[in-house]
Amino acid sequence: HVQLVESGGASVQVGANMSLSCAASGDSFSRLCVAWFRQAPNKEREGIAAICGPTYYSHSVSGRFTISRDTAKNTISLQMNNLRPEDSAMYYCAAAPVARRPLERDEYKYWGQGTQVTVS
Predict the structure, then answer these.
(1) Longest dimension (CA), the chain
(2) 50 and 62 in contact (C-beta within 8 Å)?
(3) What are residue 70's DSSP bridge partners?
(4) 3-state secondary structure of 106
(5) Radius of gyration of the chain (CA)
(6) How do residues 84-106 score in pLDDT, each as one tens digit?
């Protein structure tokens, strides 16, 4: 069983940069496909970045966000640059042994509790 804990959420100004982190216990991230999702009020949970060997990004964050893996620390980071108000959401880390569709919610078995990002 994999447990995921997100951290790094904050309230920031438009244009700011910030980083989120996801720590795993119970398995090594090196053997998992890991993704970041986000969900704003009254909206569907959206897959925005994934790392499964290759990396994948949604159109909404491509070029601004970067997902990376720190194998030694068993963490996954999401560097978010040039933040916009529409990036405000609860951000979730998710993991699965395999994800054929890396940005699809149904592919992921393990989820963290989320961390809030507010941009204004």
Answers:
(1) 38
(2) no
(3) 75
(4) helix
(5) 13
(6) 999 999 999 999 999 999 999 99
